[in-house]
Write a structure and sequence with these properties.
By secondary structure, the protein is α/β, with parallel strands linked by helices. It has one domain: 3-Layer(aba) Sandwich (Rossmann fold), CATH 3.40.50.800. The protein has 4 helices and 5 strands. Strands 2-1-3-4-5 form a 5-stranded mixed sheet. Helix 1 links the parallel strand 1 and strand 2. The longest helix is centred in the first third of the chain and has 12 residues. The chain is globular, with a radius of gyration of 15 Å.
Length: 149
């Protein structure tokens, strides 16, 4: 699988190609400005080569996210496509040294993604703010990926 060449943040990666109409609907939701002055341009990666990419594989197609200042990736996967609220998978690509490892993830519904992107951009929140209150860090594996239960 080839590395993603345009690593501009925020990056939305499509990994499910089962319904193009839903993909276009999600893009329209994400392209709506959050504020009147919102100038954020989302970098969409819509390439079937990335169909089914897992969180672990994400690190091989984005080998050095920190130097690219790509701290989070927003993934449109099967759950995003099939759930009516279209929750995108948000993956922390760099972690927080001493606290969390890269690969921690959460879901954010499409209607809230612009706000989340902007809060990440100004460092007003991070992935831990999206985790459930009862997050079990024991399920967070040594290789940096969180096991779904």
């Amino acid at each position: 699988m080839k590395p993603i060449s345009n690593l501009r943040s925020p990056l939305v990666l499509r990994t499910d190609f089962s319904d193009n109409a839903v993909w276009e609907q999600i893009c329209r939701i994400l392209d709506k400005p959050f504020y009147d002055t919102d100038k954020m341009k989302i970098n969409y990666v819509n390439d079937p080569e990335y169909a089914g990419v897992s969180i672990a594989q994400l690190f091989s197609i984005i080998p050095d996210p920190k130097s690219a200042e790509l701290f989070y990736v927003f993934i449109v996967d099967g759950t995003t496509i099939s759930d009516p609220t279209h929750p995108l998978l948000v993956v922390d690509m760099v972690g927080d040294p001493g606290y969390t490892k890269p690969g921690l993830y959460a879901r954010v519904i499409a209607d809230d993604i612009r706000d989340t992107m902007q809060q990440f951009e100004i460092a007003n929140m991070d992935i831990e703010d999206l985790l459930p209150f009862d997050f079990d860090d024991e399920a967070y594996r040594e290789d940096g990926y969180y096991d779904e239960e």
